[in-house]
Amino acid sequence: MTYVTSHAGDTPGDFGRDVLSNLYYQRGTTLESASAQDTYQSVALTVRNRLVDRYIRTAAAHYRANPRFIYYLSAEYMLGKQLDQNLLYSGTEECARRALEGLGLSPSELAALDVEPGLGNGGLGRLAACLLDAMATQDIPAVGYGIRYDFGIFKQDFRDGGQVERPDNWTFYGNPWEFHASDDQQTVGFYGHTEPLDGLRKSWVPGEVVLGEPSHMLVPGYGTTTVNIIRLWRARAARESFDLSRFGAGQYGEAVEEIVRSENISKVLYPDDSTELGRELRLKQQHFLVTCALRDIVRRFRLRNSDWDDFAGKVMIQLNDTHPVMAIAELMRMLVDEEGLEWDRAWSITRRTFAYTCHTLLPEALETWPVALVQRLLPRHMEIIFLINHLFLQEVAARYPGDEGKLRELSIIGEGDEQRVRMAHLAVVGSSAVNGVAELHSRLLAATTLHGFAELWPGRFHNVTNGISPRRFMRLANPRLSELITERIGDERWLTDLDRLTELEPAADDPAFRERWREVKRLNRVDLAHHALAATGVALDPDALCDVMIKRFHEYKRQLMRVLHVVALHRRIHRGEVADVVPRTIVLAGKAAPGYYAAKRIMRLANMVAGLVNNDPVVSPYLRVVFLPDYNVSRAQLIIPAADLSEQISLAGKEASGTSNMKLALNGALTIGTLDGANVEIRDRVGAAEFFLFGLDTTGVAALKDRGYVPWEYYDRDPELREVLDVVAGFDKEIVDDLLHRDEYLTLADYRAYVDCQDAVSRAWQERDLWTRASILNTARSGFFSADRTVRDYCRDIWHISPLRIDG
Ligand code: CBF
């Protein structure tokens, strides 16, 4: 059989012909009568098809080589728009542009119809997408597994300054990027009971069964043939679940009850967990994902292998945070109960198969599940977890004889008011490797949060500092700067070898280059200003310093401190103290978890302060605040290239890594930040002189807390802070009360250092050449933060695999 496969040497004519053919045969229409959706979907298919040939070749080469695969399990993926990415990765950008223009179509109007799959919340989900990109680019055989939520992360609007959440029906018009594979459906059980078989084996008789239906999207590598996939699962009810007789009796709701109950599992990302039912649904989602993924992984393993002792050699499962950790119990269940393996053999295979990435230091972010809930929903898994824990605690007891405290500390089962399964403990016990996501984070994990485990198994603990995709966050986001860099370096290979950016260093001292760099930054600020005006009605000055804080709203990230500084600037300017003031645009963007009231209050305050500033005719020539709603990957791609200053101001010891810090530094923004997360490594690499450091470090934080932190003292001693808090109290007294009496994240303690450091930023901005020099050096020295390097670190330290290059 021969297929028309290769699009190498494509001309605009070929591309245009394929668009027309897709319009005709896939949408049943012609260019003359096509709707905007018809045209967009046909163009998307045309681009997608240009990756299929590479994907088929990749799959065939993987089949032949039977390598060790990396299976990345994650509840979240923030993939970003696919059209711009796939045009770039298929090498058809230019050809497509000419073809579309030839057909009288506007590439930018088509791009606007491309929908971002918002299948994640924030850093962890975007990291997953960057790692998939880098794995494909590094020729690592890999599959990402996740859930195909019907509704992704909510859309954010503001009403009276407060966040309003709207559903994100991202596949409303269909998703042209995915391939459905109904034949690979899997069956997932819930509830029920267990029955003894022989030895430790049991049979689980589920009380409810749901189907998982996969579809996959292509994950192309850049500058290589490899195209991997991400496989997303959607929950479906069994075929016969529609109750025809009830429907006939007019009981329309009851007739589809089972369908609705089943499909609810993949309905939304992170269902509200403030109710018992919501929590149960979340656990159901987790079990659904891991069961579908594991069954698919075993199916793939069996294509070329038959001996279970080869499993861990062929299968490496990376657990992205605790959400997929139930996979450890599920694999044990499959091996012991279904495959009849001895417990010890199954445990050895399981432990060697899994590796776990921890993304937090906040104890409250380490997931736990009530034993009673797990017992009811997943009775066999609970028995398995108890047994894993029992055997583990025997090991602990042997190592620390008589030390009851140690047993309590390390146990997978937490004993409080109610027994709870500590998922991070299960992850560490059931994995061959555990890693933090920045040097400081990994160090603190081993010293504090997971200390007992690091003492027990020091060799199991690693650091893999996060990274970002330079393709997405430089080449696609910032084409102007990319072009300038390519022109200077001489070729585009820096996009896959980001350390080559160091070749820009001499250019930092070249006045003509600095001028062009500034011009690019300015044009990017002009683009942002257009967008901000359209989105919010706030007019921005493209010559003002663009000061950016983009991230989830969380108290520890301290958006509140950002707002306090804005109020301080407002007061100063309003009083006429403008001698040292440089015009600034404060850009804020980020969502808060719907039930996180403290974060939502801060967001509301930020919007109110924005109104105060923007509507004050004395202040607004110097200062503007724009809060761009509905932050997502596409908005990040727009904001980051325009940024001059990157706000990374979390309380030291709270941010695991951060990745917006890397994206902004790569795009030439200077950082104002604390010694937290990956800020530490950014400062080490770009240079202390090119980084505005302020605030307590982790030792200072601990010492202050030990001494007894009294926020009032800072208020008493700092007249400007007093004035600022008085203004804030006029908007929201509760926020000020909390700051003065509790201030868990030491905002007042770091406030003065922060504001003084911001003054230093303003002075530095006036030294335009020095600033631009530092901006260029930030870019030139950010090569380390490429996700390609992250993937290479995983390969070397955790996965123990090498790239598999696909010919052609
Ligand atoms: O490691 C990726 C990111 O993950 C988080 O967003 C998370 O969800 N735990 C952390 O908060 C970030 O610090 C980290 O960069």
UniProtKB/TrEMBL annotation:
Family note: Belongs to the glycogen phosphorylase family.
Organism placement in taxonomy: Bacteria, Bacillati, Actinomycetota, Actinomycetes, Micromonosporales
One MF annotation (Gene Ontology) recorded for this entry: pyridoxal phosphate binding
Enzyme type, top EC level: transferase
PROSITE patterns the record matches: PHOSPHORYLASE
Protein name: Alpha-1,4 glucan phosphorylase
Function as written in the Swiss-Prot or TrEMBL entry: Allosteric enzyme that catalyzes the rate-limiting step in glycogen catabolism, the phosphorolytic cleavage of glycogen to produce glucose-1-phosphate, and plays a central role in maintaining cellular and organismal glucose homeostasis.
Record InterPro entries: Glycg_phsphrylas, Glyco_trans_35, Pyridoxal_P_attach_site
Gene3D superfamilies in the record: Glycogen Phosphorylase B
N6-(pyridoxal phosphate)lysine carried by residues: K663
Keyword set includes Protein transport: no
Sorted UniProt keywords: Carbohydrate metabolism, Glycosyltransferase, Pyridoxal phosphate, Transferase
Species of the source: Actinoplanes nipponensis
Pfam families: Phosphorylase
